[in-house]
Each structure stands twice: as structure tokens, then as C-alpha cells.
């Protein structure tokens, strides 16, 4: 162990840099990804930074996060001939500088909490990794590298290329399979339509509803601007629609069902007033609606709503096409000033239909607003009074895969698909290894692979994340293959 820690060895520098690159990418991704869409700049940023406090679990996570960084830095410094004390001191200083930069950047990242205590935890974790793990791991890593390289040098290049092709075919099929799970093809035909509460009266919502319309197609901004009144909404061929500015309410659409009054809703020229044990519900399930949405693989729900209590923290079901409170095909929910949307897809979890979609600052006051939630099988958009809301969500295969393991949150939608593209491209970086009889054509699957990984999901539905996934995959292959080639060059 002392031989690795104290002797100048260029292999240490190579190992250290090879570990340092993915470690830094991982640290920046985990610490600077936004957690919500709130205003990122706190009222007193430097006070927050100086006196912010982290709980015990958070401190432990900060320590563990920087341990690999300490190992990588220690190897680099040891490779240049620095002694053990110098290594630990250098690791602590560099890690502290990186951590301080991250904490300052977190002041600008929505949903993140910055604290100088985190800098101490990060630097301490790096020093721990450099002092304890670096000398223990180095002989193991070197032995694994030598053994693996000896195996690689005996394998013909054509075998490696064949393995990459098989991997790409499997990855493309998996992308198509997972992308299909984002289509709204599993809506229940047994659900009814409710306004102001669930079918059993729970999670009531106090407010007015002017009109409601459901369509079997996705809207663009021109469509959203054309349905700001009940007459115009009815004229665009909805599956079902209700106009509550008249009494009795006007119904339209081939799949509309009569509504039954529960309690004593208030009918005015502004619409129907609901809430506090007053709501409306269809007399029977909306048979045929689920089938129409499944065939089109898209839908738009439009509603004119006016909340009585814009600051009300308790979630209230404004429009609910479902059953009770936790079974939805599609629901519009007021959560304070935000609009929360839950919809049923093959990949959503049965409880609360996670992930929920949160659109911030929709209800500033009690004035009526026409909200149109549109989904085309990939992209979820919200239009408020005909204008596109600043938040939108693009569902990809990454969210489907991850949501089977643990619930995906709103701020993670889109990010997991990029991570998946990196993961599926990682085996392609093996082209940088010195396979036997290697030829220039080995690079073909490595260069074409990310294009397949990124674009495969677009075969099912238009996927705006495809270009990001392609770039992520290409960068992964380029940097990874260069690092592998550089790392194994002394032994090849």
C-alpha cells in the first residue's frame, strides 16, 4: 500500500484523471439539478449561505458524495510525487473550493438550500476518501485493469462489434417499449365525471366553473386561444362539454352524460358554484371516452375556473374524471396558487397517479381563468387564458424505467431520459480498448449508436428530448473512449 501512496507513478495520474471526470459530472448533476420551479434567489442570500443548517442525514450524504472525489484527487497528487500529508491537504483544499462554488451556485438553483456547513462536510468526505480508501483501492483497481486488458487483447475486434450491434438492437427495442408506456391508452371506462369534489364528496374545492370540455386531440396555442368562451369550445367538436353559464347547463358532445347535483351548488351567469359538500357528478360512467383517447393517443381538457380561495393550501379537485380521490383518468387540482395535474398512463403508479405535474402561480386571485391542459403522448402543456405556461413536461423512456423502481417527481421529468441515454451509450465506449485486430470500422457502431439510442423513442411519438439524448450519448462515447484508450495505452 505504501508503494502506491509514496512512489511517483504515471499510472496513478491516469487512474486518478479517469475517475475524476465521471465523479465531477456526477457531483455537479446531483447538486445543481433544480428541485422545483420557485423563485431561485432568496431575500438574503449571503445570510442563508452563512447560517444555513443541514440535518444529520443531509450532512452524511454530503460526506459520502465527495469520498470518490477524494480518492481520485489523492491518486493524481500521488502520481506527481506528493507525500501523504501533502495529498490529504491538497485534497481538502481542492474539495473545499469545489464545494464552496457549488454552494454559491445553489443560491441560484430553484429548490436548493445552500449552507457553509455543507462545504465542511464535502471537504471532510474528500479527505476521508483520500486518506483511507485511496491506498486500499489502488492495488485492486490496478489488478482488475491488468486482468481485463489481457482478456481484451485476446478478443477479435469483430466480436466486440457484434456485441455492440446486439446491444444497440436491444436498447432500441427497450426504448420503443418504454416510450409506449407514456401514451394515454389505459384509461378506465368505468370512471365518472365530477366537478368540485370526488365522487364521494371528499377533497372538495370551493370555486366557480364556467364551462368544461374534453377533446381527443392535443392543442397548440392557436387552439387554446380559440376556446376561451363556451360557444367556441363547443364548436371545436369535443368528446363531451358542459356550459354552466346557463341553467339548466348546456351539454354537448357524442359521449356526454347528464350531471347530478350533490348538495346545493349555486348556478349564476358566471357558472356553477361548488365546494363545501356541493358538487356535480355524472349519472353513469363515461363509456367510449377512454377508447377515443386511446385511439388518438392524445387529449386536451379545457375548463373555465375561478377559485374562491387562491391561497388555500389544501388540495381541491376542480375537475375530476375518475373515481373517489386517488383514482383518476385526468384531474385538475388547485394547490394554493398552483395547478396540480394528475393523469393516468401505463407507467404511472396507481396511488396518486405519480408523477404529479405542478404548474406554478396559475391562480393569483379569484378571477376566472380558462385553463387548457394538453397531452400528446409525450409533452404535457398548460395554456392559461390562451397563453402557454412557462412550465412544460416531456415524458420519455427514462421516466418509465425509473418510475417502476421509485416515484418520479415533477422536477425529474426529462432528466431521467438523458441519464438513460448515457447509460445505454456506456457500453459503446469500449471501442477505445485495444481489441485484437482492431480496424477503423470499429468506430461505426460507437458513432451511430447514440443516434439510435436518442431517436428510437421518436418512432412511437414525437420526442423533444431526442436531440438532447443524442448529444448526451455522443459526448459519452467520445470522452469515454478517449479516456479508456489513454488509460490503457501503457499496457497495450
Please, could you describe this protein's structure?
Residues 32-133 form the VanZ-like domain. Keywords: Membrane, Transmembrane, Transmembrane helix. The chain crosses the membrane at residues 12-35, 59-78, 90-109, 115-134, 155-176, 413-433, 440-462, 468-487. Pfam families: VanZ. It is a single chain. The chain is an alpha+beta fold and 492 residues long. It folds into three domains: 1-152, no CATH class; 153-182 and 395-492, no CATH class; 192-393, no CATH class. It is 44% helix and 18% strand. Strands 2, 3, 4, 6, 7, 9, 14, 15 and 16 form a nine-stranded antiparallel sheet that branches. A seven-stranded antiparallel sheet has the order 5-8-1-10-11-12-13, with no helix packed on it. A hairpin with a 2-residue loop joins strand 6 and strand 7 (271-274). The radius of gyration is 28 Å and the shape is elongated. The two termini are 25 Å apart.
Amino acid at each position: 500500500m505504501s508503494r502506491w501512496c509514496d512512489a511517483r507513478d504515471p499510472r496513478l495520474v491516469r487512474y486518478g484523471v479517469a475517475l475524476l471526470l465521471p465523479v465531477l459530472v456526477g457531483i455537479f448533476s446531483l447538486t445543481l439539478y433544480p428541485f422545483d420551479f420557485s423563485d431561485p434567489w432568496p431575500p438574503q442570500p449571503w445570510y442563508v449561505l452563512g447560517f444555513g443548517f443541514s440535518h444529520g442525514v443531509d450532512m452524511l450524504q454530503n460526506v459520502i458524495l465527495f469520498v470518490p472525489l477524494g480518492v481520485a484527487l489523492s491518486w493524481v497528487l500521488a502520481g506527481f510525487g506528493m507525500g501523504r500529508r501533502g495529498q490529504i491537504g491538497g485534497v481538502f483544499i481542492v474539495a473545499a473550493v469545489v464545494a464552496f462554488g457549488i454552494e454559491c451556485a445553489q443560491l441560484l438553483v430553484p429548490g436548493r438550500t445552500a449552507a457553509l456547513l455543507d462545504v465542511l462536510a464535502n471537504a471532510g468526505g474528500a479527505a476521508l476518501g483520500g486518506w483511507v480508501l485511496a491506498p486500499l483501492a489502488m492495488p485492486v483497481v490496478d489488478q482488475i485493469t491488468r486482468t481485463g486488458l489481457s482478456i481484451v487483447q485476446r478478443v477479435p475486434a469483430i466480436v466486440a462489434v457484434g456485441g455492440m450491434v446486439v446491444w444497440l438492437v436491444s436498447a432500441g427495442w427497450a426504448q420503443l417499449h418504454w416510450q409506449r408506456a407514456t401514451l394515454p391508452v389505459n384509461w378506465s371506462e368505468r370512471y365518472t365525471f365530477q366537478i368540485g369534489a370526488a365522487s364521494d364528496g371528499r377533497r372538495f374545492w370551493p370555486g366557480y366553473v364556467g364551462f368544461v370540455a374534453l377533446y381527443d386531440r392535443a392543442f397548440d396555442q392557436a387552439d387554446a386561444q380559440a376556446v376561451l368562451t363556451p360557444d367556441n369550445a363547443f364548436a371545436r367538436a369535443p368528446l363531451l362539454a358542459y356550459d354552466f353559464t346557463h341553467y339548466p347547463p348546456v351539454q354537448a358532445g357524442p359521449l356526454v352524460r347528464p350531471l347530478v347535483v350533490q348538495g346545493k351548488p349555486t348556478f349564476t351567469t358566471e357558472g356553477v358554484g361548488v365546494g363545501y359538500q356541493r358538487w356535480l357528478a355524472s349519472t353513469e360512467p363515461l363509456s367510449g371516452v377512454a377508447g377515443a383517447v386511446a385511439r388518438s393517443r392524445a387529449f386536451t381538457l379545457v375548463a373555465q375556473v375561478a377559485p374562491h380561495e387562491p391561497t388555500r393550501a389544501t388540495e381541491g379537485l376542480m375537475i375530476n374524471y375518475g373515481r373517489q380521490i386517488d383514482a383518476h383518468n385526468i384531474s385538475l387540482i388547485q394547490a394554493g396558487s398552483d395547478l396540480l395535474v394528475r393523469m393516468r398512463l401505463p407507467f404511472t403508479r396507481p396511488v396518486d397517479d405519480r408523477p404529479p405535474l405542478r404548474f406554478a402561480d396559475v391562480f393569483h386571485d379569484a378571477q376566472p381563468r380558462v385553463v387548457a391542459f394538453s397531452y400528446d403522448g409525450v409533452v404535457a402543456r398548460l395554456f392559461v387564458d390562451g397563453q402557454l405556461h412557462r412550465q412544460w413536461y416531456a415524458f420519455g423512456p427514462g421516466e418509465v424505467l425509473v418510475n417502476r423502481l421509485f416515484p418520479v417527481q415533477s422536477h425529474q421529468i426529462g432528466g431521467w431520459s438523458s441519464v438513460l441515454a448515457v447509460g445505454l451509450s456506456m457500453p459503446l465506449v469500449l471501442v477505445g480498448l485495444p481489441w485484437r485486430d482492431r480496424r477503423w470500422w470499429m468506430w461505426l457502431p460507437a458513432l451511430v449508436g447514440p443516434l439510435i439510442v436518442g431517436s428510437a423513442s421518436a418512432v412511437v411519438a414525437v420526442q423533444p428530448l431526442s436531440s438532447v439524448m443524442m448529444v448526451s450519448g455522443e459526448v459519452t462515447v467520445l470522452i469515454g473512449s478517449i479516456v479508456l484508450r489513454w488509460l490503457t495505452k501503457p499496457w497495450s
